[in-house]
Amino acid sequence: MPHPTTAPELQILAFDVFGTVVDWHGSIQREIAARWPHLDGDAFARAWRAGYVPAMQRVRSGELGWTRIDDLHRLILESLLPQFGLTGLSEAERQHLNRVWHRLDPWPDVVAGLQRLKTRFTLCTLSNGNLGLLTALSKHGQLPWDCLLSAEVFRAYKPDPTVYLGVADVFNVTPQQTALVAAHHDDLAAARACGMHTAYIERPLEWGVRHIKDVSAQAGNDFHAKNFLDLADQLNC
User: Fold this and answer.
1) Which one of 26, 31, 76, 204 has the lowest number of neighbouring Cβ atoms within 10 Å?
2) In whole angstroms, what is the distance from residue 7 CA to residue 172 CA?
3) CATH superfamily of 24-102
């Protein structure tokens, strides 16, 4: 496979969002600290995220019909409230808390990095987050996407190949003309299996300062970058 910097066919950069573009852990921890300072916001954020894959598996297995991530987040939240002593929240308070996923802050390098990458490539999200959520996130963080793509468009959750191949289909290009940018090796491996180029982004603080993530390089990725600005440098943007 040719290196993307010398591959003139590369046109589309598709980005994982949770953890790669936005700091879900820090954002949720800050919100919990502001509203309920007596709670362990670190534990709350990690517990909420830990329910993410099992909830999607309920959809994949057919136990649940197609369900948007907003609604899966709410199902997980309802299971967490008793654990953290928040069963007294009103329906309005529960809805507001669930929409914290719409208010996640981008990592500090993201906006400037995306602006540079956009000078050479078409940029889109490729997230399991639903379109309404991604729209709110993009507005909140002033993220300069060219297009929002979501699992909701394809009615399948990553790592289903339908999602990765959907990028090429939407833009009427080949998978080799696309690249996935992500902070998760499993996501990137699934994209590579579909013929996409891949760029790994280090996000050591994704799970918080008390749980530093191993960001060691793994074989197979076309790029390994510290952040989006570093990726822009490597892609000559």
Assistant:
1) 204
2) 18
3) Putative phosphatase; domain 2 (1.10.150.240)
Domain 4-23+105-234 part of CATH 3.40.50.1000: yes
Residue 52 pLDDT: 93
Q: Looking at residue 8, what is its pLDDT?
A: 57
Counting Cβ atoms within 10 Å, is residue 216 exposed (0-12), middle (13-18) or buried (19+)?
exposed
Residue type, 212: I
Residue 15 near residue 125 (C-beta atoms within 8 A): yes
Strand order, beta sheet including 122-125 = 122-125, 12-15, 178-182, 197-201, 223-225
Strands 197-201 and 223-225 come out as: parallel
Smallest Cα–Cα separation from 161: which of 173, 171, 174, 151? 151
pLDDT of residue 2: 40
Please list the ranges in the chain whose pLDDT falls under 50: 1-6
pLDDT at 56: 93
